[in-house]
Amino acid sequence: MAGIYIHIPFCKQACYYCDFHFSTSLKKKDELISALIQEIYLRKEEINEPVETIYFGGGTPSVLSNKEIDQILEPIFSLFDVIENPEITLEANPDDLSKERIQELSKSKINRLSIGIQSFYDEDLILMNRAHNAKEALDSLKEARYYFENISIDLIYGIPNMSLVRWKTNILKALDLNIPHISTYALTVEPKTALASLIKNGKIPMPDDGIAHEHFLALIELLEKAGFVHYELSNFGKSDFFSKNNSAYWLGKKYLGIGPSAHSFDGKNRSWNIANNSLYIQSISKNELPNETETLSLQDRYNEYIMTGLRTIWGVSVSRVLNEFGESYKNYLLENAQPFIDKGQLDFENDILKTTIKGKFFCDGIASELFMIN
After folding, report:
1. Which of 17, 44, 66, 313 could form a disulfide with 79 if both were Cys (CB 3.0 to 4.6 A apart)?
2. Is 96 helix (H, G, I), strand (E, B) or coil?
3. Are 83 and 50 in contact (CB under 8 A)?
4. How many CB atoms lie within 10 A of CB 145?
5. What does pTM read for this prediction?
6. What angle do CA 6, 230, 128 make, to 5 degrees?
């Protein structure tokens, strides 16, 4: 099974923390959509297995109309072997999800919404320069629940001045709305973002890792009590509501990335498109793919497996490491994992190496210590 990701590089305004590729100008939207469709045709031979997920990411894909969504989906369904009832996700912002828009989307092929709530408090949304307000966040979810069963929301913790009480209230509001999937992220300061500049100039405090850790532990406790499975470091889902698209990434499945800055993976090679709308459109108009490709070495593939495996409930299979990478990799993994096992941050049982609750927050750092580096 494989997936297709479509990057829609447009936003109404720039969130202070975001370092994804996007433009706040919609002038080239029509040209961009035509280029996306053309790229799909140019790459029709790259996936030779059934497609189970289609994901509109961004940017803010909810700026697309139903007609534009259908224009992009049509060649996908005609050129690829799409399974019956694929998961088709649209990332959306609350300010785009009016009652009328939600009703329109319910009549499209979209069957899963991923809504960028981030917080149910205006002070947090203003600090992050989000385009919506708290009322729009609540209203969009209440309305979406009437028309969509499969809904995910994003929430951000570790925001400066966010108390533990306020963070817990964010989670409880999501639970009250019966949202079946929640993705959560610590507010991070990426270089060259507006947030980095505001912190440097003393206008916003630096996020506190200790507070973020406290928020993370409260998150796990509340959601697991509510019947959610913490199936990936940042993702919690009720039974049957795990993100098939995201799970495919962590399980090493193939995916095709369409659009500027989109990444693709065929099992051994990774490629990525140019992160420039104008140059992307120009290249596609000449039937040229504006991407770069790297072939992953054995070491690269081992490191990626460690990184993705430790983030999930499926963990890292030591026998798989032995079979795919060899005994030297297996021995290296077990030797370097032992200190984290001794500290109670990793658990090794029935051939599977997993992070414990104590180790989850430090998962990426632990994985980096297990990487094979020449």
Report:
1. 44
2. helix
3. yes
4. 15
5. 0.95
6. 55
Torsion of CA 181, 182, 183, 186, to 10 degrees: -170
Query: What confidence score (pLDDT) does residue 23 get?
Result: 87
The CA R_g of the chain, rounded to the nearest whole Å, is 21
Name the 3-class secondary structure at 244.
helix
Report yes or no: 70 and 39 within 8 Å, Cβ to Cβ. no
Order of strands across the sheet that contains 269-273: 229-232, 235-237, 181-186, 151-157, 112-118, 82-92, 51-58, 2-8, 254-258, 263-265, 269-273, 291-295
For 179, what's the count of Cα atoms within 13 Å in the CB-facing half-sphere? 32
- Amino acid identity of residue 186, one-letter, is A
d(CA 130, CA 115): 13
Residue with tokens 């205006």: 122
CB of 36 closer than 8 Å to CB of 258: yes
Q: Alpha helices of 234-347 — where are they, by DSSP H?
A: 244-250, 277-285, 298-310, 318-325, 327-342
What pLDDT, on a 0 to 100 scale, did the predictor assign at position 374?
77
Predicted pLDDT of residue 154: 98
Taking the chain (374 residues) in runs of 10, the rounded mean pLDDT of each run is 95 89 88 98 95 95 95 98 97 96 97 98 96 97 97 98 97 97 96 93 94 96 97 95 91 94 94 97 97 96 96 96 97 97 97 96 96 89
What stretch of H or E contains 197? helix 194-200
Joined together, the tokens standing for residue 361 give: 């927050």
* Alpha-carbon 70 to chain mean position: 23
| pLDDT given at position 31 | 97
